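Subject: complex prediction, re-run

Hi both,

The earlier run crashed halfway through, so I resubmitted it with identical inputs.
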Amino acid sequence: MADMNRSDFIELLLERAKAAGFEAAEAYLSEGSSFEVSVNRGELIRYSVAEEMNLGFRGLYEGRMGCASTQALDREAVEMLVTSARDSALLCESEDEEFIFEGSARYPDFDGAHPEIEALGAAEKIALARELEQRTLDFDPRVASVDDCALYTLRSDLRMVNSRGLDLRTRRDQMGAYVGAIARDGDRTGSASRDCFARDPAELDIGRLAREAAGEAVAFLDAASAPSGSYPVLLRPDAAAQLMAAFGSIFSADAAQKGLSLLAGREGQAVAAPCVSIADDPLLPQGRGSRRFDGEGVASRRTGVVEDGELRTLLHNLKTARKQGVQTTGNAARRSVAGPMTVAASNLCVAPGSLTPEEMRARLGGGILVTELMGLHSGANAVSGDFSLGAKGFLIENGGLGRAVNQITIAGNFLELMRGIEAVGNDPRCGSSRYVCPTMWVRALSVAGK
Amino acid sequence: MLTNSMAAPALCAALGTGGDFAEIFYQDKTGQSVSLRDGRIESALTQRIRGAGVRVFKELSCVYVYTNDVSAEGLLRAARRAADAVGSISREAAVELTGSRAANIHPVRALPLDISGARKAKLLKDACAAAKGASARIAHVQAALSCSQEEVQIFNSEGLSVGDCRVRTRLAVSAIASDGRENQTGFSGPGALMGWELFEERVDPEAAAREAALRAATMLTAKPCPAGVMPVVMDGGFGGVIFHEACGHSLEATSVALGNSEFCGRLGQRIASPRVTAVDDGTIPNEWGSLNIDDEGMPTTKLTLIENGILKNYMVDRFNGRRMGMPATGSSRRQDYTYAPTSRMRNTYIAAGSDDPEEMIASVDCGLFAKQMGGGSVNPATGEFNFSVAEGYMIRDGRIAEPVRGATLIGRGAEVLQRIDRVGPRMWMAQGMCGSVSGSIPTNVGQPRIRISEITVGGR
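This time it finished cleanly. Structure:
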């Protein structure tokens, strides 16, 4: 069966949903194109070009929400969506009130479109990837190869239409690059990787990426483990963001209402050291997660989550806000194009302090600078707050950076860690993560090594 | 579904600028998941994905283009875009396809999408009740039933035209135990390459739920694991994740072909203790990581990776095989059509040995018994791996003692394989999802109970 025109499909879908007895219904059409090239010794070992479309449908049937999605836009798909969503609504037993949103009064004028990214030709992008590899290899004779050296661009167009009058569109262009450097010296191997993300080709700093990845790979040639014990720790901004991302769900009211967050019911209480403030900022110009509206079509705005150590609010969507008698913070997130709806941060930002990383090292005297965490998907438990993770980094000795450290683990509890933050740095780094952190000084963590 | 008369012109177009091999992968997959929380069905979702990917090689370069437009014109457009990226010369290519259906070695009796929502809901509710009944400390239970039915077709410029149907069913139960101050979790996720008969032939949903609940309740009473270097006994089943991370990924051509694995150039050499024989097998009937054909259309295989400590084989896909000068091993996989395929694991296990499972604990003065593992990860270039222990106990004076939580094991693949000093007689497997360059795919890990003479244990 032939696919239909997008607008005709959506119109027919909402019509059929109404006829089938849905009280309200919504279509969410996500279309994107992507380009990625990965080089090795100048050869294109991966060159990928794609166009993708996904249509999500959700609707209220007898007060309950049903959902389904498709990538085929034929007439058969209309019937599949309506029937599957109705079956799914009839199966649901949740008594929470569900919402199809009629729209916010005003939307911020955030514009995610960057036509200059789309205008980049394939040859230019290949040249950038080759330059990234060459600069990484040229940094030091001990850099033997790159692991994955790639450049990508993404464009996505979103349209959200519902039977309550909402009709929103947004476009987003992004690009990024990453490189893994492998250094060898005799039988020793050191590796490090870096990625970056940009909304404008001019911001992409290939030289810095190459320098940092290659420099760190070479530094790790001399890495060794450290004796087990309790150490003061500086988390470098990228490592701090990794940890924050692993525990991001504790700020979700959805998780809290399900008994899955340690912060449930803690609004108004001190949950972190007074030097810690955290905000969700969907309008951050360089943010990976920046957007005009959330997954339910609610206008985006900044939300103070933790201020001077005190939990001000959790992040909400319409359902969790209604349950708790508060306003949504505009943090509805779709698990897939169809739903179900959950809650997620847009860009979760730890506010910078006043100290430079050098000043923090000088004050700390001796300890460990952690630059990378490993095993976050299994060794960090957002429900218990416990973490026990592989780590790499550098010794801090007499206020300066010492030799590289690998083959260690760090362990602790996330809430204890937040309460034990001594200071935050003035160096937040907006990388490819939706979590933006400065250097964070943790009073003490258990380290296992040799 | 695509026909040979749609695929052949697209393959010709894909080769039209000097490519030397072209392939089309088509996929139409409907997945359904029903989720329950604390006794109530919370959501049910049906998703259909459908698309095709065109892959073209020219010597050691590879181009991949995918699209949702699977009409004859859509395929041609994708093929031409791929060809444009390959080169600028113009060339006539001819492709003749001969069609077939893959022989099915994984029979399915009850298609899971045909099972009513009400039956699925009942199974989840029974599992939830069993979890709650297993311990008074269980505060919350989340359970989900996921199933999928999928048609794939692979066509290539060597004349291959082959199709297959894949059906998977999995239950996942997550229990949260709480004492009012602290929470701990337990997980159980049995699944197979089969339909609803999974719950009649292989898996008792209530038993799986109780297992998750008891693990959460036990971990609530556990103290933090002490940190240090010690002997570790790892139980069978999901314990096999140690081989998956410490060695398996580093034997995939993805790492080996580019010289980025610690096991490059080691074929025929001893890389593990003589007690270790390890296998990656896609042919085991109806197992979670099994296949009829891989995502390059090649019949799946049973591949010995390590035999009595000697490295025998890498896992090789068609593209990386060119660089390595080795044939493909039928283990090329991808999450879906949005990824180009590459060498991946299927059902990977350490084979049964002959050491006494009791003796390997009785002979340890102070160490860790890892009864159930969580997930892990590895950097193939340096061999550095890490994985977490979901349920662990101290071993003191040759006996299993108090439970401990928050243990993580780290090390280097080449070192830990040499330190396996016991391998038990009974191997079993468990299900997981493995994430890598070609996406997230179902894989089994497995092993008998084994012992590692010393490894760094992270804790507090």
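The mean pLDDT of chain B is 95.

- K.
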